[in-house]
Amino acid sequence: MKEHWVSPRRFSLPVCLAASLVVSVRTAAAASPAGSLEGSVRTSDGLALPGVAVVLDGPGGTRRLTAGPDGSFVVASLPAGPYTASVDAPGLELREPRTVTVAAGPTRLDLVLVPAPVSERVVVSATRGEATLSSIGIAADVLDRERIGDRAAPSLLPLLQDVPGVATARAGQTGLQASVFVRGGESSFARVLVDGVPVNQPGGAFDFGTAVPFELERVEVARGAASSLYGTDALAGVVSLETRRAQAGEAPSLRAEGEGGSYGWRRFDGATRGARGLFDWNAGVQRLTTDNSEPNSRFEQTAAALSAGARIDSRTEARAVLRFEDSTTGTPGPTAFGRPDLDASFERQDLVVSASVRRAEARLAQRLSVGFARSDQLSLNPLDSGPWIPEWNGAQGSFTLYDSPNPAGFQNQTGRLTGGYQADLSLGARHLLTAGAEVEHETGAIGNLSDDLVRPERTNFGAYVQDRVLVGSRAYLTVGGRVERNGSYGTHVVPRAAVALRLRGGDDATTLRASAGLGVKEPSFLQSYGGLFQIQANPDLDPERSTTFDIGLEQRLFASRARATATFFHHDYRDQIAFTVVDYTTFEGKYVNLAETRAQGVELALEARPLAPLRVFGQYTFLDGKILESPSGFDPVYAVGEPLLRRPRHQGSLSAQLDLGRWSAGATVVYVGERADSDFVGLGLTRADAYTRLDARLRVRLARAVEAFCVGENLLDADYQEVLGYPALGRSVRGGLRLTVGGRP
Fold first, then answer.
1. In 360-405, alpha helices (H)
2. Element (H, E) at 658
3. Domains of the chain: residue spans and CATH
4. 444: closest CA among 485, 406, 488, 483?
5. pLDDT computed for residue 692 by the predictor
6. CA–CA separation, 572 vs 167, rounded Å?
7. By C-alpha distance, which of 196, 197, 170 is closest to 181?
8. Which residues have C-beta within 8 Å of that of residue 422, sequence separation ≥ 6?
9. Is the Cβ–Cβ distance between 350 and 413 less than 8 Å?
10. How many Å apart are CA 381 and CA 27, to the nearest integer?
């Protein structure tokens, strides 16, 4: 066979041309213009949304990134061409579809989000910075200014009853001692913040009895151990109150209100709010009095609030906040069981002051803050009212009770000075890192004023770090921890982790969320330092601890006209401190780490806006709480296996609010089921009955600047006791006028 040989010269020209073409194409592609994209994500009222996921679709494929501390984002080396931007924040919608063409050099794209019919909530307390609720995996609820105003509650407690996982109990009527229980924890197991300042007494206790929704911007409740951010007290969650402030550009205004009603109810308040140039302010004063319905239970309170801010430059703001309350109430005791104490009373003064400076840039936000909280409480009982035997429904107590007069009074004065620094740093396109350090100095002056007071002091240090990271395209992970150096119990490390997994996006988004964490709580001054009659000091107490986890599902329905959540939670509370007698001759004792309890259950919540003027809120909590360990010799209500004191197994509320221009109306039904309790006076009562309460309100605009309003509480006149022996108020009605001049109505 003859071989055919072809000279390579015949291929040299086409091969070279092809190679040259490929190189030219690649070179052209490499040299094609690439640009950068920068912008911000904000709500329609100017609130920055750090950590929100921004999605870009275009020539470079799909990119997901998170907004930085000031809500801004930057994408470098982005291939030129048209891009479509969207934001993963169910309940917030882009004002209009946003497309942008990226060319050589920087391109700007600002995204403005408007609320859907049921809006996304922006929460601060859960992460110590603004975050959309659906992206943090932590169970939390926000009551904003509108909802607080619509509810028209006489005190803070009815507002908290509308939050899933929260139970309340007041020992009497308006102004008397009240407790709040978060997820079955003790009343001292939630950290309470007022404008970022912790106001719990050392050891976690906080009396909500005198708390009223005066000049409040928002109430946040984050559930689950939060010691990874807040250190001591946050075993079960955080309750955060924020003073009302003016919005940028808001015209100055004056407001005056007067209100009167049943049981001698009188309330007068005045406020001014506005913004001028670089400054904004909100200031108000209030005077409240009511006789209540029981003898010697009159409540009087004078309150003042101020929030003032100054923008030093476009990125830096300074703010000062002050709240003050001065109240007096009679304390007649458990009048349902017998004679009232006609001379006993309780005086209280609370002061909270804070100052902060915050600077927010594209990649770094820094905040320096100081705060001071002081509570001065004085219990008086000048006269001996004599012995008495409790009675209830024909039964008599098993022993005689005696009054304990104390003409000088018992003082419980505590103070907490705090200082802290926090930095929020954007790392790459998917991480938002938070780190900070705090110091708290606690002081007290406790005891009978006729004796030498116990004057304890304690200083705590803490450092924390948290990372919020976008994992893949659907998962948001929050993980962090804190090192706490407490002046009583030493050093402990407390971690927390949470995840929110978007199973489906869009208007009908489905989000699976879960969180877990550890909590610690310091002993109270009385428990650690003793010094009072029959109570020995125990400086070796360990912290009370908690281990918590929850898992839940959030579903948006009907194009975000409804939002439903269901959450299962499990909390273990260990090393709880209880009093034990060490000498049965003198009944002298001390506090020791003895008790353990468990709380688990289900929280259901619904928020819906079926029509533009109609809003509906509902919540239900099932709580399975049980005592696992308990000191011997105590009331049978504290025995092992018994349910938790004053925490109902079933609780729920349902509210509807209708707004039709010149007038609005609303109603709320609250159901609180049977719960464990004790009369503590020898009658043998161990259960408090269930009750249902109906509240309603009506508001009518009479003129541009004048509104009339009317509120009814317990309209069904239910006869019930939140705490055994202490009757709640019956049916009451109050009404008044509100005058607003200037600003927004």
1. none
2. strand 650-660
3. 30-115 (2.60.40.10), 122-237 (2.170.130.10), 238-742 (2.40.170.20)
4. 488
5. 98
6. 18
7. 170
8. 128, 366, 367, 369, 434, 435, 436
9. no
10. 92
Residue type, 398: S
The whole-angstrom separation of Cα 237 and Cα 220 is: 10
Computed over its alpha carbons, how large is the radius of gyration of the chain?
A: 30
Q: What token pair was written down for 457?
A: 């002091």
Residue 565's beta-bridge partner residues?
554, 605
- Taking the C-alpha atoms of residue 674 and residue 24, their distance in angstroms, rounded to an integer, is 82
* Angle at 152 (CA atoms; ends 146, 153), nearest 5 degrees: 120
Q: Which amino acid is at 39?
A: G
Neighbours of 222 (CB within 10 A): 29
Q: What is the model's pLDDT at position 22?
A: 39
Which position has the token pair 């943090």?
136
pLDDT attached to residue 630:
86
d(CA 384, CA 388) in angstroms, rounded, equals: 12
3-state secondary structure of 439: strand
User: CB of 514 within 8 A of CB of 137?
Assistant: yes
The helix/strand/coil state of 9 is helix
CA distances from 328 to 258, 291, 349, 492 (A): 21, 12, 9, 40
Question: Encoding tokens for residue 706?
Answer: 């004048």
What whole-number distance in Å separates Cα of residue 206 and Cα of residue 1?
A: 106
Q: What is the dihedral of CA 178, 550, 228, 157, to 10 degrees?
A: -20
- Total length of the chain: 745
Q: How far is CA 264 from CA 267, 273, 697, 726, in A?
A: 10, 30, 19, 19
Question: 499: which 2 tokens?
Answer: 């995840």
Q: How far apart are CA 26 and CA 632, in angstroms?
A: 83
| pLDDT lower than 70: segments of the chain | 1-33, 95, 97, 531, 533, 632-634, 744-745
**What separation, in Å, do the N-terminal and C-terminal C-alpha atoms of the chain show?**
104
Q: From CA 407, how far away is CA 426, in angstroms rounded?
A: 60
Instruction: Enumerate residues 6+ apart whose C-beta is below 8 A from 152.
Output: 697, 709, 711
Distance of CA 285 to the CA centre of its chain: 24
Which residues in 628-660 are b (16+ Cβ under 10 Å) and which e? eebeeebeebbeeebbbbbbbbebbbbbbbebe
Rounded to 5 degrees, what angle do the CA atoms 285, 187, 521 make? 105
C-alpha distance from residue 599 to each of 139, 233, 239, 266, 501 (Å):
16, 17, 19, 40, 26
Amino acid identity for residue 43 in this structure: T
Q: The sheet that has 197-198: what strands, in order across it?
A: 140-144, 216-223, 237-243, 190-194, 197-198
CA 86 to chain centre: 30
Residue 47's pLDDT is what? 83
**What is the per-residue DSSP string for 479-539?**
EEEEEEEETTTEEEEEEEEEEEEEEE-STT-EEEEEEEEEEEEPPPHHHHH--STTEE--T
Across the strands, what pairs with 669? 654, 694
Kind of pairing, strands 588-611 and 535-536?
A: parallel
Query: What pLDDT, on the 0 to 100 scale, is given for residue 634?
Result: 60
Q: How many CB atoms lie within 10 A of CB 171?
A: 20
Tokens representing residue 599 in the block: 């709380």
Is 171 within 8 Å of 88 (Cβ atoms)? no
Residue 54: C-alpha distances to residues 102, 478, 490 (Å) = 16, 18, 43
pLDDT given at position 632: 61
What pLDDT does 43 receive? 87
